[in-house]
Structure formats: C-alpha cells, structure tokens
Amino acid sequence: MITFYPGPSKVYPQVADYAADAIRQGIVSLNHRSAGFMDIVQETIRLLHEKLDIPADYHIALVSSATECWEIVAQSLTAEASLHPYSGAFGKKWAEYAYRIKPPTSLSEADVLCIVQNETSNGTQVNMETLSQFRRDFSSLIAVDAVSSMAGIAFDWTLADVWFASVQKCFGLPAGLAVLVYSPAALKRAEEIGENNHYNSLLFIHENFSKFQTPYTPNGLSIYMLMRVLQQVSAIAVVNTMTKKRAADWYAFFEKPELGPDFRLLIEDRVTRSDTVIAIEGSEAAIKSIKAAAQQAGITLGNGYGDWKNTTFRIANFPAISDEEIGTLMEFLRSY
Ligand SMILES: *Cc1c(COP(=O)(O)O)cnc(C)c1O
C-alpha cells in the first residue's frame, strides 16, 4: 500500500529503524532531565536551525501538536485579540480555538495576525510575497501555521514571529510532536504579557528549553526520531527545489488534463496553489469511485476535508514520498 494522504502521511521508511534503535538503546527510558536526553534535545534543535535554515536568533521548542500551538499563541502571545483571515477548514478551526481562549473584544486592536501558510483542507497557500505584504501592513506579531509545508518548502522566517508545524506531514514522522519556532519579538511579547498559568505557557516552555528540557515528560521517542530524520534529510534549499518541481509536474498533469473530464483542479488561481497538497475536484460519485479504484490498486488517496470532504480528493506532495510512488500514481490516473 502506498499513501498520498496529507496527514498522517507516509513516514520515511528509515523511521522503523530509528524507532527500534530508540528502544533497543534505552533512549526511551532515559530520564528527561538527564544529560543524555538533554543532548538529544540540543542536537535536534541545532539540526532544525541547520537543515531548515532557521535564523540563529529564533528560538525553537518542541510541543505535542499544532493544535497546542494554536492555544499557546492565544494564551501567551495575544494581549487583546487575534486576527484570522482564513480560507479553509484549518484556519477556521484555529480562529475558533483562539476565540474560546481569548474572546475578541475589539478587532481593531488586534495584536496578533494568524495566517495558515498552507491550507491543507483545500490545497491553497500564502506565498512569501503575500506574507511580506502582511508584514508591511501589520505592525504587530504574525503567527504562521505551517503544518503541511514546514520541511517541504523554504520560508523567509523573518516574515513572521511564530511558525509551527506538527511532524506527521512534511517531516515524514508519526504524529505526536510539533516544532514551535518563535522570534525574539515574540519572546519579548510573552514577557510583556507575563502569562504563566499553564504547563504550556510560552514563558515556562522557553525557560525549560533554554536548558534543553521540557515542562512535562516529553515524547522522547518522537524527539529522537526527529533528530535522526533531520540527520538524514537534505538542506531545505534542496528539498524546496524538489518539492516545487514535483508540484509543477502535478499541476501540469492535471491541467492537460491527463485524467479525464470528470476531474479538475480545485484551485484555479496559480498564485495560491499549494506546493505540498494538491486538491482535485469532481462530482461526489466520481470522487468516491476513483478513491475506491485507487485503493484496489494499492494506492491511498487523501480524502477531501471540511467543505470539500465529498467533492475532492487530495494528493500529498511531501518529501518522504518517492519518485517511484509518484510514477505509480500518475500511471494509475492516466489509465483510470
Ligand atoms: C494537520 C494540520 C493541523 C493539525 O495538526 P495537529 O498535529 O493535529 O494538531 C493544523 N493545521 C494545519 C494546516 C494542518 O494541516
């Protein structure tokens, strides 16, 4: 079975060995305040800076999910209100979670702008040019959900103050861990707000990670596997080129269209098309039958999501997927 599901998604095959190593070598039994464990956290953070080209003055912490990051932004970084210009299901969910924690009193005093860089539900993205426009127009903090693009495409990190992603998408790992990147300005804001009521208050997280520790017993297995995957992957500039080439190939394939008239790209505007999640639209019946036929052929297509649940399927364009697997899917679609 090969999978193009956009999360949880295909994990790097090497992860099986990394998991076995973590257990055989007793890494999962290390006390999380021990030197051995702190070394793994330190090396993981060093590798994140190196492989993803994250600015040296941006801080990195590891938490358990992107959903947790939504709440951290609301509780620890939002003084008045957050703004959520969204275009899909994940952006909407983020706004709902944020407003439960920080009900907006006056949106004209919004002090955090929350952007979903890659909207996994419908295959759109906010590219770096658009993000730089937001940066020029909005003077306060910008927080970016990059769950389905971080480690898949390159970012200009300086265009936002907070970036986060869980690892079950472009990192090619099992779910249960998230990377939270925050700028010196974000830390300063957290200090001004001074919110320290939660186990995952950003100030408490920061204090722990400055010692390469975590507030609570962390997912040590996942942190170790992340370290090993980061050792294995190419620098983000290389991965970025590969992802964008594959995305261009996918869009050319569907524009031709090599797959009959029953299906079309959900997103017509080329500028907003995602590089990492491709959404294909069709009638409910057509979508249902192509997903079933793919399954028969040993290929899992991603279901639609949210408003597009029954009228689209999605194809993950994540780095762990091989050229051979992409070839197999293209062949299946051509002959469908
Ligand atoms: C998958 C996804 C999430 C949710 O991630 P969790 O790890 O389940 O919290 C959030 N935002 C986007 C854009 C996603 O694709």
UniProtKB/TrEMBL annotation:
Pfam families the UniProt entry points to: Aminotran_5
Domain Aminotransferase class V per the UniProt entry, residue ranges: 109-303
Needed cofactors: pyridoxal 5'-phosphate
Coiled-coil ranges per UniProt: none
A molecular function (GO) term: alanine-glyoxylate transaminase activity
SUPFAM superfamilies in alphabetical order: PLP-dependent transferases
Top-rank taxon: Bacteria
PANTHER family per the UniProt record, alphabetical: ALANINE--GLYOXYLATE AMINOTRANSFERASE, AMINOTRANSFERASE CLASS V
Protein's name in the database: Aminotransferase class V-fold PLP-dependent enzyme
Organism: Spirosoma arboris
